[in-house]
Amino acid sequence: MNNGSSLWPDYNTVTNPDGSKADFMAPVETRSAGYRFDVDGDKIVLILDDETLFPYISSDAQYANPVFTVTKLTNSEMVLLYEGEGITWRFMLTSKEDDAPKAFKGYKFDSDGNMLRDATWELSRYYAHGDGWEGYNADDITYTNEEPRWRIHTGR
Questions:
Q1: Taking the model in full, what pTM does it have?
Q2: What residues does 83 pair with on adjacent strands?
């Protein structure tokens, strides 16, 4: 709880070394609260029920009318902004390591997901030379790179 709050005054007794009030914790009973997402102009907002207990209450106004701008939302993290009087509070709520599928990083031959990793291959080569496809033994074919295109030379 922010030291500027008038909520739970019996617990707002901690002082800093300079004599100013310090943030404090107050015991509360478990309660349920509702929420909804909405759009405000170009912002997505999270609106909690009035007087919702939040991990950190920055002001009496936040407790009375908790409306937050959502700046990030993933499987395991939500970043919220609360725009108070003269200050914007940033809240980063996390639940666990993000286990969303990661971007493809390239082919991995020995991956468990590669169903062909134990396959046995027999190589056959074919060449189309105008009137159809003709098979050749791999030993009979050599390749050369002659401009402007590849040419295939057979041993026949």
A1: 0.55
A2: 88
